[in-house]
Amino acid sequence: MNFLNLAETNAPLLAELEEAASKVIRSGCYLHGPETKAFENELADLCGARYAIGVSNGLDAIRLILKGYMELGLLHKGDGVMVAGNTYIATLLPVTEFGLSPIIIDPEPRTMNFDWEQALDVIRQSEEGKCEERVKAVLVTHLYGTPSWNLEIARELRDRGILIFEDNAQAIGALSAEPGLNGVRMTGNLADAAAFSFYPTKNVGALGDAGAVVTNDRQLADVVRALANYGSTERYRNRYAGFNCRLDEIQAAMLRVKLRRLDEESDRRNAVARAYAAGIRNDLVTLPEIFPDMRQVWHQYVIRVPEEHRDALRNYLAEKGVPTDVHYPTPPVYQPCYEHSFNPRENDPSLALSHTCISLPIANLTPEQAGEVARIINEFIA
User: Fold this and answer.
1) What one-character DSSP code corresponds to residue 29?
2) What pLDDT, on a 0 to 100 scale, did the predictor assign at position 306?
3) Which of 57, 188, 300, 314 is the most buried (most CB within 10 A)?
4) Position 126 pLDDT exceeds 90
5) Which residues does 283 contact at the CB level (< 8 Å), separation at least 6?
6) What does the mean pLDDT of the chain come to?
């Protein structure tokens, strides 16, 4: 059993992928071509959004959203941007890169996602002058494929002029329990703009790096498209000091093949998650919650175990041939690159959570294999 085997993941699609790659190679068009345009249209249609811009990776997608709104004058250096404390570091890096002020929000225990109630409390404190940062944006991560959304609070934020962005790297195809500000439930189109990652391990994975920005904001879409191409709005005319963040035609072609299988992949992962939920009966294990009013897509299946038993359980599973992982062992603010940027907190929920998480294999599993993993877990005695 593998935790993730990309060759196995791609094997059923090999003929289609090879044909798509060959078509691009023969075309002689490797950037700004028909595959990228078609993929952008298909992704926008999936999300029910007006615009999708293919870019180089998920990190750059977040960078382009933030930089885009700075170019539009809606974000400025020093503005506060709320970020989940237990996300991957890629969510935080662009915030600090552009001189914005990150405000770390704790995970909500049931979902392990961004705590919207805490975020609203912080905003109210900011308005009352009880904290220094002026909150101008919220960047929520749909962690592990579970939507993070609260329509009532999102509307309150919108009324205050606060921008809302989604880090949708792990939740393509997921449906929130409530509609977003744009009237649809699909993650990636709940708020003002969303960043997508198509890193090879994602539910829709490229055969290299790739990402996208999705939005209904025409001005932002135009700025993002220009920023991703050296800031150029026409050849040899650079309106912005931009970047090289383009999506290439080969990866766009690969992603078109993968995108057609998204519903099938989501259904399979949900079947595996249900098998885990039905089979694991060990009192030491806290299972991730399945929310019947949402569509979760289970980028990872993350259980929680008391810190003092986590390594023992992982070692036991490894001996039984069950690989595991930890997403993520160290929260971003505790990484060496931020050693002097954040003050350590006592009883930090993100840090506590990072010490209890175990990711079980889900990407290449069948429900029957998940049932066998559950049986092995049930036999673990601390």
Assistant:
1) -
2) 98
3) 188
4) no
5) none
6) 97
Give the span between the Cα atoms of 138 and 136, in whole angstroms. 7
d(CA 231, CA 227): 4
pLDDT score at 125: 87
Tally of CB atoms within 10 A around 232: 16
Cα three-residue angle 190-193-194, rounded to 5 degrees: 80
**Greatest C-alpha distance within the chain:** 67
The tokens for 200 are: 């090879």
CA dihedral sign of residues 15, 20, 23, 25: negative
Residue 303 main-chain phi, psi, to 5 deg: -95, 165
How far apart (Å, rounded) are the C-alpha atoms in residues 66 and 70? 6
Q: How confident is the model at residue 15 (pLDDT cuts 50, 70, 90)?
A: very high
Calculate the alpha carbon distances from 200 to 57, 121, 123, 165 in Å.
11, 37, 37, 23
Compute the distance between CA of residue 67 and CA of residue 280 in angstroms, rounded to an integer. Answer: 45
Concatenated DSSP letters of 113-175: EE-HHHHHHHHHHHHTTSSS--EEEEEEE-GGG-----HHHHHHHHHTT-EEEEE-TT-TT-B
For 365, half-sphere exposure in the C-beta direction (CA atoms, 13 angstrom radius) is 30
